[in-house]
Amino acid sequence: MLHLGFTPLLALVLGASLGAAFPLDALKKSCSLSKYRFIEPRELEAVENMMKQFVSNITSQSDCKCNTRLFHRKWKMAELSVPDRVMLVEAELDLAIAMLVLPAAPGFAETRQQPLAFLTQAREDLRGCMATEAPSHQPSGKLRHWLQKLQMAKKTESTCCLKVSAIIHLFQVLWNLQCAALREECP
Length: 187
Hints:
Blueprint: H1 6-21, H2 24-27, H3 41-58, H4 82-100, H5 106-111, H6 113-133, H7 141-156, H8 159-168, H9 170-182
Helix pairs in contact: 4-6, 4-8, 4-9
């Protein structure tokens, strides 16, 4: 007859129980962007309030002129494949988040907290999707050109220019996020 000690037997039983309770497939991160198809009104309102406060404070600064028009593209989001859409929005969110975390006046620092948390979560969700669904995706020519333009702007434009561009175009970024979440034709 087989005699097992209490500790190894307990470990065996717990291991088998946990293995059945949490199958390996369930532990893999899944891609679900459906929660971004319709962004909650409170999130949109928080972004709008932050943008209004930012615009009212920035109008007096003249060094925010930009040579690059990052958010003015000759192509539409609908022309991109779904993985390209996700990559585009992830890059736009990277820029917006990088600009929002810069030091700011106390009032703006408070106002940006909710939008910053929302945008950060969206970016992490997009990264999870790219990692699970298209880990080796190479951007199309249109997107690759825009990503290069973005990298060049980060090197040549002032921080103020990048900050203004990113914050002023947040609703466009949110629209692009919704389009990426649709996974079908964008309007």
